[in-house]
């Protein structure tokens, strides 16, 4: 059953993820651009608002009709300081008349098309776990396990040298985060020293595991497992029906992550193929559905002129 019905409303939607920044319009479910902004986005926070906005507007947005006549919708993390939000709003209102700031965890609810559930956002810098009961967010937990630590686990297990380690990021992004490229892995295994490397186990045995196994040898930290089970238990106490565990975030595309989560969660685990774009899609669904939410902070140019940075004290997140 569709909970959020898409309408004809449109907006310029920007999702500044920690790894890629996605830019597009609400009426189109596919981002027009997915760009590397990591030099100005650190730990999920935009560090240079002026440069960020200028880069967004420097893209060819001709596919979006009357782009400056529609709202500017930005997905942000809850911990973004008012100072950063104010600086972003100042830049936005040089081109746009209205803007909205949508928390990324709320975007996951719209993306999932369900009012209830437990959400696991596996990001580039951290993993967030939270629940939603009737659309109300609760029990938000941030776990410091991330894809970079996974790299270290893989590198340590296979005793990669510095040259091999430098190849790891490129290979992972090209092949393991892109299901459509899986058929190229066999060819890659014949040329990459990462996959041909022999490993000596503690008992002295020399092995060379199949390539697809090498990115399955990571462990979910106990802190992740404990918090997932705790939040699941708390949420289930308030729900009369079994809750799905919805997995989102670009780093969740790494193979076997959903299987490992399913081991710790007896509930059904849902992970759609487009989950790396969840914040962009969730913000787009919110724009189209026109659902009123206290947690979406919308404002116009006059609000900023009248109240300045203090206008962001009104946000409930």
Automatic annotation (TrEMBL):
Q: Which SUPFAM superfamilies match?
A: Actin-like ATPase domain
List, alphabetically, the InterPro entries matched: Actin, ATPase_NBD
Alphabetized Gene3D superfamilies for the sequence: 3.30.420.40, Actin, Chain A, domain 4 (3.90.640.10)
**Protein's UniProt name:** Actin related protein
From which domain of life does this come? Eukaryota
Signal peptide bounds:
none
- SMART domains of this UniProt entry? ACTIN
């Amino acid at each position: 059953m569709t909970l959020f019905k898409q309408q004809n409303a449109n907006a310029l939607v920007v999702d500044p993820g920690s790894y890629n920044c996605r830019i597009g319009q609400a009426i189109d479910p596919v981002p027009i651009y997915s760009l590397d902004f990591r030099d100005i986005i650190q730990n999920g926070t935009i560090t240079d608002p002026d440069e960020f906005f200028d880069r967004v507007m420097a893209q060819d947005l001709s596919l979006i009709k009357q782009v400056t006549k529609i709202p500017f919708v930005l997905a942000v993390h809850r911990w973004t300081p008012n100072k950063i939000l104010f600086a972003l709003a100042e830049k936005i209102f040089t081109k746009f008349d209205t803007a909205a700031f949508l928390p990324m965890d709320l975007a996951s609810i719209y993306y999932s098309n369900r009012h209830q559930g437990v959400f696991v956002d596996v990001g580039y810098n951290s993993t967030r776990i939270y629940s939603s009961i009737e659309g109300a967010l609760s029990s938000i937990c941030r776990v410091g396990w991330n894809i970079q630590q996974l790299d270290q686990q893989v590198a340590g297990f296979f005793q990669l040298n510095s040259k091999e380690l430098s190849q790891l990021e490129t290979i992972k992004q090209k092949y393991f985060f892109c299901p459509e490229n899986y058929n190229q892995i066999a060819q890659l295994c014949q040329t990459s020293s990462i996959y041909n490397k022999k490993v000596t186990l503690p008992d002295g045995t020399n092995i060379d595991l199949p390539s697809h196994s090498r990115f399955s040898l990571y462990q979910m930290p106990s802190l992740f497992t404990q918090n997932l089970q705790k939040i699941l238990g708390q949420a289930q106490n308030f729900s009369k029906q079994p809750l799905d565990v919805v997995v989102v975030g670009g780093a969740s595309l790494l193979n076997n992550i959903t299987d490992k989560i399913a081991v710790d969660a007896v509930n059904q685990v849902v992970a759609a193929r487009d989950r790396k774009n969840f914040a962009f899609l969730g913000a787009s669904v919110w724009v189209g559905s026109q659902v009123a939410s206290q947690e979406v902070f919308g404002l116009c140019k006059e609000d900023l002129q009248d109240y300045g940075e203090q206008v962001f004290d009104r946000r409930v997140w």
